[in-house]
Amino acid sequence: MIKEKHCPNCQQSFECTHQCWCSAFPPIVPLEKEKGCLCPDCLKQEVIQRIDSWTTPLTKEKVKTIQQMGLPTQLIEGIDYTINEAGFYVFTSWYLLRQGKCCGNGCQNCPYQKIEK
User: Which InterPro entries does the record match to this protein (predicted)?
Assistant: First the structure.
C-alpha cells in the first residue's frame, strides 16, 4: 500500500510504503511522532545535523554506540559518502566509524584520530 504524505518542513509530497525509503537512514534520528514524516531531502538534512551535533565532541563511548549500529544497508550520499572533484567516492567519518575500526590507510575523513580520551 502506497501512501502520499506531505513533509511538515517543506510541504513537498512524497510516497511512503510498508518498505519505506527512510529505513536506509541511520537510526540516530528519533522522529517526533506528532510532527509527521519528513521528505527525503529534509530527513537527510536532519540526519546530517544530528550526526554533526551528536559526534562533536567524539568520545570513546559515542564511538562504541555508533559501531554497534553496524554498516548501513544502503549508502546515502552526504551521509555515508561524498563525491570529490575527480568523481571518486569518499567515505564520510560517520561511515568509517560504523566500519568498527581504523583500517590504517590514512583515509581523508578518518575519525579515529579525533576521538577524545
Answer: DUF5522 (IPR040807)
